[in-house]
Amino acid sequence: MKLVKTGLLAGALSLATAASAVAQDLVRVAEPNWASGRAMAALISTVIEDRLGGQVEIVPGGNAVIFAGMDRGKGEIDVHPDVWMPNQENFTKEYVDQNGTVALSDHGYTGFSAFCAPREFAEKHGIKSVFDLATPEAAAAMDRDGDGMG
């Protein structure tokens, strides 16, 4: 399995796998609760319906629900459209590597995670990396109510 360190892989199952599932009455495509996940679910659904002649049901859910639904093998969820790596590595280790019940596509798209901060704040507090946010100084600078939680 090829992992992208700071990226994401689209689809826990490739569209080729989804195409074989079209022989079923219905392909259930998960709809994660973030924008790119919803967009990929819509795109995959359109391909299955318009190009492959299949029927699609969109199944909203978070990662725990999506991966568990695929793991059970009862057709609850057939496709996870937007797997972010390494963010979701705990799920891929369990369901892909250990259980072997979920296949991870080798044909994803590369992306990256980032954060934004006002330039003045970042320069004042020496924030150049997400790891810089873990310093006591950065935490204190972002603490709005004195609870130490930012």
TrEMBL record:
Domain of life the protein comes from: Bacteria
Signal peptide positions (record): 1-23
Domain ABC-type glycine betaine transport system substrate-binding: 27-141
Gene Ontology MF annotations: transmembrane transporter activity
One term under GO cellular component: ATP-binding cassette (ABC) transporter complex
Pfam families assigned to the protein according to its UniProt record, in alphabetical order: OpuAC
Gene3D superfamilies on file: Glycine betaine-binding periplasmic protein, domain 2, Periplasmic binding protein-like II
Keywords: Signal
Name of the protein this chain belongs to: Glycine/betaine ABC transporter substrate-binding protein
The organism of origin for this protein: Roseovarius nubinhibens
